[in-house]
Design brief:
Elements (H helix, E strand, L loop, with lengths): L15 E10 L3 H16 L14 E5 L15 E5 L12 E12 L5 E10 L18 E9 L2 E11 L8 H30 L4
Antiparallel strand pairs: 1-7, 2-3, 3-4, 4-5, 5-6, 6-7
Length: 204
């Protein structure tokens, strides 16, 4: 695996792209490994993300493949139920939903380089699979990464192909999704992710 330019981030083809990165440099490899392990642990503790994003923030709840909330490490096929500030849509019982489609945790010998990656994609509420339940279309992805490159540990969020979901049968849902997308593009999402990546690295 190439730890420097992972191909796990999908290519950008349509809509908007976003990249938020925060870095921290350790004094030696032992400290860098500890920082990576702690940051990766925070990444995998999705239910606690809200505590790292005080202020204008969504809340995140990890669920199993049936949509039941769980206190566990995320797995491919699990879902994340998102409650965002502002108007909610009837789809997804008022929540936005994403599904975890990729998990990677890997390291080289002696942790010279290491990677913890989670990629999610907008989807339907697992209890209502016939109706898309996210303000972005299903082609969008968000890739969350904790990366160790030598003594540098980074926390990253990469959004790709972000475009408003306006194909719902409900006009109100379409209007709401457009409004939320506009707010996200205007910088609200960036503020959220900037707080998260700092929190993942243990920065205040």
């Amino acid at each position: 695996m190439n730890f420097f330019q992972t191909n796990e981030i999908p290519p950008q083809r349509e809509g908007k792209q976003s990249d938020v990165v925060e870095k921290k440099i350790a004094s030696d490899n032992a400290e860098a490994k500890q920082l990576f392990d702690e940051s990766a642990g925070r990444l995998l503790n999705i239910n606690a993300w809200v505590t790292m994003c005080e202020g204008i923030s969504a809340s995140f709840t990890l669920t199993d493949k049936m949509g039941k909330p769980v206190n566990a490490s995320p797995k491919e096929g699990f879902f994340i139920c998102i409650e965002i500030p502002g108007p909610s849509a009837s789809a997804g019982h008022g929540y936005d939903w994403v599904q975890i489609e990729k998990m990677v945790i890997a390291h080289e010998q002696h942790y010279a380089n290491a990677l913890a990656l989670m990629r999610v994609r907008p989807c339907a509420d697992p209890a209502r699979p016939e109706q898309h339940a996210h303000f972005f279309k299903a082609k969008a992805t968000s890739t969350f990464i904790i990366r160790k490159n030598g003594l540098t540990v980074s926390a990253e969020v990469h959004g790709r192909n972000e475009e408003a979901s306006v194909d719902d049968d409900s006009i109100l849902n379409n209007i709401r999704n457009k409004m939320v997308t506009v707010a996200a593009m205007a910088g609200i999402a960036a503020i959220q992710w900037e707080k998260l990546v700092k929190g993942l690295l243990g920065k205040q």
